[in-house]
C-alpha cells in the first residue's frame, strides 16, 4: 500500500496549486476542468475531506497526496501518525506570504498596513524563545511551520515512519512549474515514471490564474441552478506587491524582526531569501 | 468524558435545541455568534466540530463536563471514529420534511423564479442533493440511521437515544427541554423555573431579533411553521410529494413513524 504523503505549506505558499497540478497530471485533465470528486480521489484537501465527514482513506484507495496547512504537531494529524511516509513541503518568502495575504483580504491603505505589520510580528512566536513556545494556531508561525515541516528529523517527531521530505520553493514553482512538478512527481514515485509530455501538457493547461478563476466560478453543487446570483468571477491580479509598497515601516519592521529573531533569519536565509 | 451528539437533518431545529440547552446551563439568554454558516460555540460545552478541526484540534475528551456537539452528518461518518466509544448520548431532532423544504429554500436563498424547480429537486432527492454530498444523506436515510437504535449502536455502541420532534418543541418547549435535560443528565432534578426562563430567552421571535448574520445572507431563524402545504410551489408539487409517499416505502415509513403522514 502507498504511504500517506502530505503536501504542506504555510498559508498562501503554493500548497493548493501543487495539489491541483498533481491531480491534473495524474488524471491528465486541465486543472480548471478537474472534477472535484476525481481530484479528491487522487489529491484531496484534508479540510475538504473533514467538511464532508471523511478522513483520509487508509486502504488501497489512499490518495497520492493530501493537502494540509496544519503544523505537523497538531492533534488533528495524530490519527495519521503511523501511516505517514512522505512529505512535500512548499516554502515561500515570508515577504511574499504577507503580500499575498493582504492582497487577498482586499484591504486598502491603513488597514492593509496594519495587517501587514501584525503579520510581520507573527512570523515567529512573540515574547519567548521559539523552541519553548507552543504552536501558534493551526499552522504555527511561519518559523514553526517551515522549521518543523522541512526537516525530516523534526517531522519524524510527529510521524516516525517518514522516509524523506521534499522541499519546493514557491518561487521556483512559479518560475518553472514544469520542473517543480517533475520534482514532486518523482518524489511521489508515480506509477510508470514521470511522463515529460504529460507534465508539459499539465502545466500549459493549468496556469495559476486559470485555476483560481475556475475555483471562484465553481458554484455550490446542486444549488446554483436555483439561485439568481451566482458568485461573481473575480479577476486574479498576480502582480507582486513588495512590503515597501505596503508601507516603508512594514519593510523596516520586517528587517527589525529578522534582526531580533536569529532563528527566523537563519531559516529565511536557508531557503535563499534575503535576510537583511 | 461523556459526549453527546445533537443530531438532525439541516433546518430541523438543531441550533434552537442547542440554544435552549445553553440558556438553561447559563440561566440567561445566550450570546449568538454568527460564523459564516451557523451559530457557533454557544457555550463552553457546545464546541463546534468543524471549528475545532480548523484549529487543528479534536474534541476535548478529557473535559469532565458533558459536551453537546451539533452534527448533521450521518452516524457512519468517518470523522466520528475517534469519538465512537466516548459517545454516551444522542439527542436527535426530527422535523416534518414539508417544513424543512421552505426553511432550506429561505436559508439557501432560492430565487422566486426557481422555487418550483427547487421543490421538485427536493422531492426527487428526498432532500438537497448537495447535502448528500456533504455526508448528511437523504432525509429518510438520515432519520432512520440516527433514530433506529440497532443501526445507531453499530456506530456508537454505548449511546443512549432520545428523539425530539421539532413540532413538539414548538408546541411545548418546557416539556421538551425538561426531557432533553433529564436525558442528557445535565441535572438530576431539572429546575422548572430555570427551564421556563431558558424557554423565554430562546423564543424564536427573540432569536430572530438577536441574530446578526452576514447582511448578504438570509436570516438564520425562520418563522418555524409546521405542516405547510406545498401548493405555493406551483401546480403538481403537492401531487409529486403525495406520489413520493406512495412510491417510496422508506420515505413514507419515516414520515408515518413521526406522525407527518399526508
Automatic annotation (TrEMBL), chain A:
It comes from the Bacteria. Signal peptide: none annotated. InterPro entries: P-loop_NTPase, Sulfotransferase_dom. Pfam families: Sulfotransfer_1 (PF00685). Gene3D superfamilies: 1.25.40.460, P-loop containing nucleotide triphosphate hydrolases. SUPFAM superfamilies: P-loop containing nucleoside triphosphate hydrolases. One of its GO terms (molecular function) is sulfotransferase activity. Residues 5-206 form the Sulfotransferase domain. This is Sulfotransferase. It comes from Dactylosporangium siamense.
UniProtKB/TrEMBL annotation, chain B:
Gene3D superfamilies: 1.25.40.460, P-loop containing nucleotide triphosphate hydrolases. Residues 5-209 form the Sulfotransferase domain. Keywords: Transferase. The keyword Calcium does not apply. One of its GO terms (molecular function) is sulfotransferase activity. The keyword Transferase applies. It comes from the Bacteria. Belongs to the sulfotransferase 1 family. This is Sulfotransferase.
Amino acid at each position: 500500500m502507498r504511504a500517506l504523503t502530505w503536501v504542506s505549506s504555510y498559508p498562501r505558499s503554493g500548497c493548493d496549486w501543487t495539489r491541483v497540478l498533481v491531480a491534473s497530471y495524474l488524471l491528465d485533465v486541465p486543472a480548471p476542468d478537474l472534477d472535484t470528486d476525481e481530484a479528491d480521489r487522487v489529491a484531496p484537501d484534508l479540510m475538504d475531506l473533514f467538511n464532508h465527514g471523511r478522513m483520509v482513506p487508509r486502504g488501497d484507495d489512499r490518495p497520492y497526496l493530501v493537502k494540509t496547512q496544519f503544523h505537523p504537531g497538531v492533534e488533528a494529524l495524530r490519527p495519521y501518525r503511523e501511516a505517514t511516509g512522505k512529505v512535500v513541503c512548499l516554502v515561500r518568502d515570508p515577504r511574499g506570504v504577507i503580500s499575498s495575504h493582504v492582497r487577498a483580504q482586499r484591504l486598502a491603505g491603513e488597514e492593509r498596513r496594519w495587517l501587514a505589520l501584525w503579520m510581520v510580528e507573527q512570523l515567529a512566536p512573540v515574547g519567548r524563545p521559539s523552541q519553548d513556545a507552543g504552536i501558534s494556531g493551526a499552522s504555527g508561525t511561519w518559523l514553526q511551520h517551515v522549521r518543523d515541516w522541512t526537516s525530516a528529523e523534526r517531522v519524524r517527531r510527529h510521524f516516525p515512519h517518514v522516509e524523506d521530505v521534499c522541499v519546493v520553493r514557491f518561487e521556483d514553482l512559479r518560475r518553472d512549474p514544469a520542473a517543480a512538478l517533475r520534482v514532486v512527481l518523482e518524489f511521489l514515485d508515480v506509477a510508470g515514471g514521470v511522463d515529460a509530455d504529460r507534465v508539459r501538457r499539465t502545466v500549459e493547461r493549468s496556469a495559476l490564474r486559470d485555476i483560481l478563476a475556475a475555483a471562484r466560478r465553481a458554484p455550490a453543487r446542486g444549488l446554483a441552478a436555483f439561485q439568481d446570483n451566482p458568485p461573481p468571477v473575480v479577476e486574479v491580479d498576480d502582480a507582486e506587491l513588495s512590503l515597501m509598497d505596503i508601507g516603508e515601516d512594514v519593510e523596516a519592521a520586517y528587517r527589525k524582526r529578522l534582526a531580533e529573531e536569529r532563528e527566523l533569519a537563519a531559516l529565511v536565509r536557508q531557503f535563499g531569501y534575503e535576510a537583511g | 468524558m461523556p459526549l453527546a451528539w445533537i443530531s438532525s437533518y439541516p433546518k430541523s431545529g438543531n441550533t434552537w435545541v442547542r440554544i435552549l440547552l445553553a440558556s438553561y446551563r447559563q440561566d440567561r439568554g445566550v450570546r449568538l455568534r454568527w460564523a459564516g454558516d451557523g451559530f457557533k460555540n454557544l457555550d463552553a460545552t457546545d464546541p463546534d466540530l468543524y471549528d475545532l478541526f480548523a484549529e487543528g484540534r479534536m474534541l476535548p475528551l478529557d473535559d469532565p463536563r458533558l459536551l453537546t456537539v451539533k452534527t448533521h452528518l450521518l452516524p457512519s461518518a468517518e470523522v466520528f471514529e475517534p469519538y465512537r466509544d466516548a459517545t454516551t448520548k444522542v439527542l436527535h431532532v426530527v422535523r416534518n420534511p414539508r417544513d424543512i423544504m421552505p426553511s432550506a429554500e429561505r436559508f439557501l436563498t432560492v430565487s422566486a423564479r426557481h422555487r418550483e424547480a427547487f421543490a421538485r429537486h427536493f422531492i426527487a432527492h428526498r432532500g438537497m442533493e448537495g447535502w448528500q454530498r456533504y455526508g448528511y444523506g437523504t432525509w429518510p436515510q438520515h432519520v432512520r440511521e440516527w433514530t433506529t437504535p440497532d443501526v445507531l449502536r453499530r456506530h456508537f455502541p454505548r449511546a443512549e437515544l432520545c428523539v425530539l420532534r421539532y413540532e413538539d418543541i414548538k408546541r411545548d418547549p418546557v416539556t421538551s427541554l425538561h426531557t432533553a435535560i433529564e436525558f442528557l443528565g445535565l441535572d438530576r432534578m431539572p429546575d422548572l423555573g430555570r427551564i421556563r426562563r431558558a424557554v423565554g430567552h430562546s423564543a424564536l421571535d427573540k432569536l430572530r431579533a438577536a441574530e446578526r448574520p452576514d447582511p448578504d445572507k438570509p436570516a438564520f431563524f425562520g418563522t418555524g411553521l409546521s405542516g405547510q402545504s406545498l401548493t405555493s410551489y406551483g401546480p403538481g408539487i403537492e401531487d409529486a410529494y403525495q406520489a413520493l409517499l406512495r412510491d417510496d416505502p422508506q420515505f413514507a415509513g419515516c414520515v408515518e413513524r413521526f406522525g407527518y403522514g399526508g
